Amino acid sequence: MLLAKIVNIGNNPVAFTFFIGCMAMFASSVFFFVERGSVDKKWKLSLLVSALITGIAAVHYLYMRDYFMATGDNPTAYRYIDWILTVPLMCVEFYLLTRLAGATKTLLWKLIIASTWMLVAGYIGEAFSDGSTSHSVTWGMLSTIGYLYVLYTAWFGEVAQLAADSKSEVIEKGVRALAWFVLVGWAIYPIGYVVGYTGGGSAEGLNIIYNLADFINKIAFGVVIWAAATSDSAKAK
Ligand SMILES: *C/C=C(C)/C=C/C=C(C)/C=C/C1=C(C)CCCC1(C)C
Prior knowledge:
binds retinal
C-alpha cells in the first residue's frame, strides 16, 4: 500500500529539515536579489549569483522534499542536479571576488572542472552503488581529488595568491572567508556520504547532514558575501 510509505513530518527530523531548508532557500534568494539594489555596482553580480544559488536550491528542495515525503527514499538525482548547477556558481563567486585582483577565466574553468569532477564521481558512488563498500570508497576517493584541488587553490594556490597580491582588505577578507567555507563547510558533505553508505541505504542520516551542509554553504556563504559587499559599499560612499 503506497499510503503507508508517506512520511509524517511530525516525527521525522529529516522531513523537518527539508521543509526548513526549502523555505530558507526561498527567503534568502529574495533577500539577496532585493539587496542587490543597495550595494555598489561592482558587487551587484556577486549578489545576483548568490540569489541564483539559493533560488536554484529552493526549487530542488521543493522536489527533494516531495520525493522524500512520498517515498522515504534518498532523492539522489535531484540532490546532484542541484549541486552540479550551484557548485560551479560558487566557483563563479570565487572568480568574481578575485577578478578585480586579476583572476583569469582559466582559473574559473579549472575550479569548475575540478568541482564538476568531484560531483560526477560522488554521483557514481551514490547512484550506481552495488551495495559494496569498495564501490563507495573508490568513487568517494576519486571525488575527494577534485575537492582537494579546490581546497588547495583557495588556501595556497592561485586564488590565495591573487588575494594576497591584491593589497585590498576586502578581497583578502572575502577570499579567506570563502576558503574557510571550502575547508569546513564543504567537508561536511563527505561525512554525509560515509554515513550514507555505512547506513545500509537508509536515507535519514545522510539527508540531515546534506541539508545542514547546504544551509551553511549556500545561505551563510551568501550572507558573508552580502556583508562584504555592504561594508565595502558603505566605505565607497
Ligand atoms: C551547494 C552545494 C555544495 C556546496 C556541495 C558540495 C559538495 C561536496 C563538497 C561534495 C563532496 C564529496 C566528496 C568530497 C567525497 C564524497 C562524495 C561527495 C560528492 C559527497
